[in-house]
Amino acid sequence: MSRDSQAALAVPVIAVDGPSGSGKGTLARALADQLGWHLLDSGALYRIVGAMCVRRGVDFSQAGQQPKQERAVAALAAGLDIRFTGAAVWVDERDLTDEIRTEDAGANASKVAHLPAVRDAVLDLQRSFRRPPGLVADGRDMGTVVFTDAALKIFLDASAEERAQRRYKQLKNKGLSVSLRGLLAQIQDRDARDRGRAVAPLKPADDAIVVDSTSMSIEAVLELVLTEARHRGLC
Ligand code: DC
User: Fold this and answer.
1) What atom of ligand 1 comes closest to residue 146's alpha carbon?
2) Mean pLDDT of all residues in the chain?
3) Are residues 33 and 139 in the same domain?
4) Looking at ligand 1, which residue's alpha carbon is closest to its atom 16?
5) Are 63 and 74 within one domain?
6) Which of 41, 99, 184, 220 has its CA 20 to 30 A from that of 49?
7) Is 106 in the pocket of ligand 1 (CB under 6 A)?
8) Which of 132, 157, 179 is the last residue of a domain?
9) CB neighbours (10 Å) of residue 217?
10) Residue 143, ligand 1, Cβ within 6 A
């Protein structure tokens, strides 16, 4: 093992996994802010890959069945120059911050995230975010695949109905007209794909603390996780 990778392993990681809408993005950002640690939004990486496929006309509609399509998506993923500055996302010097946050971008992300070659292609990139003083890693497989040695693993869940309600309120507040029933169907669809895939399915690590946030405020969840982090000497 190189000295660089040994040094990286000494950097503590808090893994925050869970389905979309569970509040894990908000929790991960708040944790990173409180602790002064780096933040990895791994979902954004899959969203970027999907969006760049659309932009470059790389067809992934049959990638699950056609190895040639899967290889093309993985090659695209491996060649991207991705930069996060605060909440903004830059890809090949282009600002994709808003483009990757649409419902379509989420659905495309879920499709490319299904492909083992794509997951492989973004593995090293994800691990490169592990820098002192620590990393909060937000995703689906942070605790089970990417950072199996994380010092603290949280799996944040909430009922599909509650997650659809939260998303509905978010979109309403942005002035968008959406159907609650449509959102619930999308969430259930995405959950089934993320939980059912063969590679890195969405599930809690054996050593994860499972938190159901259905009837908890984000402040209460944050306090619970910070208390656990203190117990483990992370802060
Ligand atoms: O967290 P998010 O909604 O931005 O993630 C977008 C999609 O990417 C989601 O459907 C699941 C997938 N994803 C994944 O498979 N593994 C991760 N570590 C993060 C996200």
Assistant:
1) 18
2) 94
3) yes
4) 140
5) yes
6) 184
7) yes
8) 132
9) 10
10) no
Alpha-carbon span 52 to 39, nearest angstrom: 22
Which CATH number characterizes residue 33's domain?
3.40.50.300
Compute the C-alpha angle 9/13/19, nearest 5°.
Answer: 135
Domain count, the chain: 2
Domain residues for the domain of 50 are 41-132
188 and 142 assigned to the same domain:
yes
Write the pLDDT tens digit of every residue in 65-99. Answer: 999 999 999 999 999 999 999 889 999 999 999 99
**In terms of DSSP H, where are the helices of 42-179?**
42-56, 67-78, 103-113, 116-121, 123-127, 160-173
Question: Each residue of 135-165: pLDDT tens digit?
Answer: 999 999 999 999 999 999 999 999 999 999 9
Pair (139, 167) in one structural domain: yes
Q: Is residue 57 part of a domain?
A: yes
User: Do 137 and 33 belong together in one domain?
Assistant: yes
Task: Give the Cα separation of 203 and 196 in Å (integer).
Answer: 10
For residues 154 and 14, the answer to whether their CB atoms sit within 8 Å is: yes
The number of C-alpha atoms within 13 Å of 173 and in the hemisphere containing its C-beta is 6
Length of the chain counted residue by residue? 235
**For ligand 1, is residue 19 a contact (CB within 6 Å)?**
no
SS3 122: coil
